[in-house]
């Protein structure tokens, strides 16, 4: 049976489970600070595959790719600007092997690290860089692009348009939010969940939501805000496993699998359609989320 579109699956009533963290999972397998994670797609594909398989075995319906920093601007920092297509395509092939035919591969597209506000890049530059990455991701067999951890609207919307206009990939777009002193949630650039969601959909996104941030607290409020302006759009939440704590010089994310899964009923009541994890979440967290989702919905994964 074909996978179909993710948006169609959730509109039929299914609650889907996404994967967990990639960066911290690779660090646990030996990725050093200052190394290029995407280079592991070529040099340590077995370890990257191990991460992907761990999430599928834990119950993920969709698996990301190790391509978060696979845009030309990021890769040029490591002297790898001429390997954009190679490393992105390799990342998709690895995740596709883990996903098999029944699960979706959602290819990760992260921020470039540049801002138009600083004058070092234009929106056209953003568009062209994301176009290059998206075309490579689609060519290797991705089902969707997940444009994630965004803070600036101009960069995110350029990415959405680049994917929409140059590929047939389904588009997920998520921003990262932090609480303000007034109790609202905004990105680092001052964008609200409602504004980000509406403009992302207008640019061509099929699914919107939030990832990363300061953990799972506040995600219900973010879902409610998105739902207040977009009652029917599929929503995805991928929270960090709490706020990182420094233990013996290492950042540790303290939220247990049960603590994260305990939030899922509130998110589902608020209208979430896809639940996964971000920094610090492991296959154990995803396994617990899977159990909770199944017990709440009785749906077939």
What does the model show?
The mean pLDDT is 95. Helices cover 44% and strands 16% of the residues. Helix 7 links the parallel strand 3 and strand 4 (144-150). The chain has 13 helices and twelve strands. By secondary structure, it is of the alpha/beta class. Helix 7 crosses helix 8 (153-166). It has one domain: TIM Barrel. The strands form three sheets. An eight-stranded parallel sheet has the order 1-12-9-8-5-4-3-2. The chain has helices at 6-11, 23-28, 40-43, 45-58, 72-77, 84-99, 123-139, 153-166, 193-203, 219-229, 257-261, 264-270, 283-297, and strands at residues 16-17, 62-64, 104-109, 144-150, 170-175, 178-179, 185-186, 207-212, 235-239, 245-247, 250-252, 274-277. The longest helix is centred in the middle third of the chain and has 17 residues, at 123-139.
Give structural attributes:
two-stranded antiparallel sheet; 8-stranded parallel sheet; TIM Barrel; alpha/beta; 301 residues
> What would you give as the CATH superfamily?
Homocysteine-binding-like domain
Characterize the main sheet. Answer: 8 strands, parallel
Q: How many domains?
A: 1
**CA-based shape:** globular
Helix/strand order: HEHHHEHHEHEHEEEHEHEEEHHEH
Short description:
With 301 residues, this protein is α/β, with parallel strands linked by helices. Helices cover 44% and strands 16% of the residues. 53% of the residues are buried.
Layout of strands and helices, then pairs:
Elements: H1 6-11, E1 16-17, H2 23-28, H3 40-43, H4 45-58, E2 62-64, H5 72-77, H6 84-99, E3 104-109, H7 123-139, E4 144-150, H8 153-166, E5 170-175, E6 178-179, E7 185-186, H9 193-203, E8 207-212, H10 219-229, E9 235-239, E10 245-247, E11 250-252, H11 257-261, H12 264-270, E12 274-277, H13 283-297
Parallel strand pairs: 1-12, 2-3, 3-4, 4-5, 5-8, 8-9, 9-12
Antiparallel strand pairs: 6-7, 10-11
């Amino acid at each position: 049976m074909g996978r179909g579109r993710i948006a169609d699956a959730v509109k039929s009533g299914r609650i889907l489970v996404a994967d967990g963290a990639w960066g911290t999972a690779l660090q646990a397998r030996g990725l050093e600070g200052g190394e290029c994670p995407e280079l592991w797609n070529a040099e340590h594909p077995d370890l990257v595959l191990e991460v992907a398989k761990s999430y599928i075995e834990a119950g993920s319906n969709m698996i990301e790719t190790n391509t978060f920093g696979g845009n030309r601007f990021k890769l040029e920092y490591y002297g790898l600007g001429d390997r954009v297509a190679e490393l992105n395509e390799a990342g998709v092939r690895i995740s596709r092997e883990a996903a098999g035919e029944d699960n979706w591969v959602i290819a990760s597209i992260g921020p470039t690290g540049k801002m138009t506000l600083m004058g070092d890049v234009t929106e056209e530059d953003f568009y062209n860089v994301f176009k290059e990455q998206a075309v490579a991701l689609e060519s290797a067999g991705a089902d969707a692009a997940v444009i994630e951890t965004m803070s600036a609207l101009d960069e995110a919307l350029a990415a959405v348009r680049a994917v929409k206009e140059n590929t047939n990939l389904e588009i997920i777009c998520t921003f990262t939010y932090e609480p303000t002193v007034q109790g609202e949630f905004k990105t680092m650039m001052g964008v609200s969940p409602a504004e980000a969601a509406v403009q992302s959909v207008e640019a061509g996104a099929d699914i919107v939501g939030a990832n990363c941030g300061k953990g799972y607290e506040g995600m219900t409020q973010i879902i409610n805000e998105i739902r207040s302006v977009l009652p029917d759009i599929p929503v995805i939440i991928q929270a960090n496993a709490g706020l990182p704590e420094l233990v013996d010089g290492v950042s540790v994310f303290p939220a247990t699998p049960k603590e994260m899964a305990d939030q899922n009923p509130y998110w589902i009541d608020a209208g979430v359609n896809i639940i996964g994890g971000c920094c610090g979440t492991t296959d154990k967290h995803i396994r617990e989320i899977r159990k909770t989702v199944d017990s709440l919905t009785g749906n077939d994964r």
